[in-house]
Design brief:
By secondary structure, the protein is of the alpha+beta class. The chain has one domain. It is built from six helices and five strands; from the N terminus they run ββαβαααααββ. The longest helix has 18 residues. The radius of gyration is 17 Å and the shape is globular. The N and C termini lie close together (about 10 Å). One of its GO terms (molecular function) is oxidoreductase activity, acting on a sulfur group of donors, disulfide as acceptor. This is Gamma-interferon-inducible lysosomal thiol reductase. Belongs to the GILT family.
Length: about 160
């Protein structure tokens, strides 16, 4: 099926979604793999996602991989074992980033700095978070799908 919708105006800033989460939390894993990533996949033209993990390896992967980070995190979070999936997911989505660089980040000062920055961002939440996953939204204009507008599907694409 194809979605028959108009593209949003590029003059409108995208909706900014920030997710504060713990890397091994089952609820966070489910939210990322079953809700946030599929939504981002459909709405990435009008949506930006910032991930603020509590977990050193995740912070390093996000820092080192840039635009591929969300796909890597999704790959890891949807795997049976998050930590065992890290290296294969990194190689799949960011083959130019070596596992040695991630490991060096995790065990070095950079990893500690990244985790500290994430802790500062989390502590600055207002209102303060009471659980994870914790999601914040800023900016943008609601697309028709969020306003209850009917969406017409083109079913002739088989």
């Amino acid at each position: 099926m194809e979605l028959n919708a108009t593209r949003p105006s590029r003059a409108v800033p995208p909706v900014s979604v920030t997710l504060y989460y713990e890397i091994l939390c089952p609820g966070c894993r489910g939210f990322i793999s079953q809700q946030l990533f599929p939504t981002w996949t459909m709405l990435q033209d009008i949506m930006t996602v910032t991930l603020v993990p509590y977990g050193n390896a995740k912070a390093c992967i996000i820092h080192l991989t840039g635009h591929s980070a969300f796909q890597i995190i999704y790959c890891m979070e949807s795997a049976a074992n998050v930590l065992n999936a890290a290296q294969p997911c990194l190689q799949l989505y960011a083959p130019s980033v070596s596992w040695a660089r991630v490991s060096s980040c995790v065990t070095g000062d950079l990893g500690n700095q990244l985790m500290h920055a994430n802790a500062v961002m989390t502590r600055a939440l207002s209102p303060a978070h009471t659980h994870v996953p914790w999601v914040t939204f800023y900016g943008g204009v609601k697309p028709p799908a969020c306003n209850g507008a009917p969406v017409r599907l083109n079913r002739s694409s088989c």
